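DM between two lab members

TW: hey, do you still have the rhomboid protease entry open?
JB: yeah, one sec
JB: this one, 304 aa:
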Amino acid sequence: MDDDREPTPTSTAKAQLYGVDGNPQELEVPIPVNYFKLYGYSCCPCFIPPPCSPANSHRYCLALFSASFMLSIVQIIMLIVEISLDGFEKPSINWMLGPTSKAMNTLGAKNDYEIKCNYQLWRLITPIFLHGGIIHLLCNLTMQLRLGMIIERRWNSFRFLIVYFVSGIIGNCFSIICQPTSIGVGASGSLLGIFGGFVVDIIINKKKFENRVWLSLIGRLMISIIIIFVFSFAPGIDYSAHVFGFIGGAICAFGLFAHQNPWITKKLWIKISIWIICPIICLAVLLLTLLLLYLGVLNVGKCN
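TW: and the structure you got?
JB:
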């Protein structure tokens, strides 16, 4: 006897993840929910099904033309150039599987002596595009292409780049002050600045989030930041660039997003004061660093 009963439909639930482009993406998942698979999609959204759908193709295009992705491509190319110049450094000297100090210095690493004696001020920016090795680059790209892209979508690329570069420069400035004899490279200060800015953003816009979502978001962020700060004090890591990059990003973001808070919006004089004070603080850090450097307060050696 044939069974004419209709098949029982599978129960599904809707989950919201962030797609490959950093924008929210809704996904239907069967019940019971496989949280391990969802976590995998969250970490690597390229595998969110169906990967070849027109909607996902559009997301890939957005991702490819994002500032986060463009920066990552430049940083990958620069690491290849660094290694091609002078080969790999011995792992006993550079545990991050990367280039020699000579190669990094040639391409624009933070070098206080060169900034002071040869006026190479671009060395406050160029270290952002350089990395100390494959491990260093992979760690930064993991954050930049995931969390960085999500934050970029929330802010827009222009604001993202402002916070990114201001944080990197401030981090490098304090690296000059705190570690004047070391060569420094990496985008970690910039990325920590993005995280610092995001903390400020979600605090300012707290009322726009549900309490549960807000607490979850701030909790995850703080755990990530604490872990990064702990590793910032490992040998060979520039802790000052990390710590002050974070602070610089927070200050910069406060200047950019403070007006979104209803209380601040009602007080025009406060809004204008913030717009004036935040850039002044950032500029003051740069000027103070150069002043200490060129007055000889920092021990970087005498110019030949």
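TW: got it. The first helix runs from residue 35 to 43. The longest strand covers residues 12-18.
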